[in-house]
């Protein structure tokens, strides 16, 4: 069964940068798209970015556009999220998943469960 696992995260100061990784394992099909989302206890899950795997074209939510960059390493089946100029409101659990298509930054159809998540805490 295909699995995704996020890594990275931790505590950073506001204004600093951090990179998350998402590794795909037990893959037996071509990845159409992959996406990042985030969630806090107070809010519903928020889409962060969605990336078309073959072309590498990313889509971003307005809240992270210009600060976050999503990329992938096809050979390593790994998705990345490079976060810069972090703000306290970026504090959340970050999750990745594989899906069928992007609807902007949102995963329009999801093939896998979200991973266990990587916690990012941004202190002011």
Structure description:
This protein is mostly beta strands and 124 residues long. The strands form two sheets. Strands 2, 4, 5, 6, 9, 10 and 11 form a seven-stranded mixed beta sheet that branches. It has a four-stranded antiparallel beta sheet with strand order 1-3-8-7, with no helix packed on it.
Write the layout of secondary structure elements.
Layout: E1 3-7, E2 10-13, E3 18-25, E4 33-39, E5 46-52, E6 58-60, E7 68-73, E8 78-83, E9 92-103, E10 106-110, E11 118-123
Parallel strand pairs: 2-11
Antiparallel strand pairs: 1-3, 3-8, 4-5, 4-9, 5-6, 7-8, 9-10, 9-11
Helices and strands, in N-to-C order?
EEEEEEEEEEE
Instruction: Please count the helical segments.
Output: 0
**Shape estimate:** globular
Mean pLDDT: 95
Low-confidence stretches are none
SS class: mainly beta
User: How many DSSP-defined strands?
Assistant: 11
Question: Which features would summarize this protein structure in a list?
Answer:
mainly beta, four-stranded antiparallel beta sheet, 124 residues, seven-stranded mixed beta sheet, 11 strands, globular
Question: What is the gist of this entry?
Answer:
This protein is mostly beta strands and 124 residues long. The protein is built from no helices and eleven strands.
């Amino acid at each position: 069964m295909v699995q995704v696992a996020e890594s990275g995260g931790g505590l950073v100061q506001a204004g600093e940068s951090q990179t998350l990784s998402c590794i795909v394992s037990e893959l037996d099909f071509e990845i159409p798209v992959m996406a990042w989302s985030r969630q806090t206890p107070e809010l519903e899950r928020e889409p962060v970015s969605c990336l078309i795997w073959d072309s590498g074209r990313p889509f971003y939510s307005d809240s992270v556009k210009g600060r976050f960059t999503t990329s992938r390493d096809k050979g390593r089946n790994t998705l990345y999220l490079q976060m810069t100029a972090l703000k306290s409101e970026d504090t959340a659990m970050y999750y990745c998943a594989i899906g069928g298509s992007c609807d902007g930054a949102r995963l329009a159809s999801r093939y896998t469960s979200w991973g266990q998540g990587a916690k990012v805490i941004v202190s002011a």
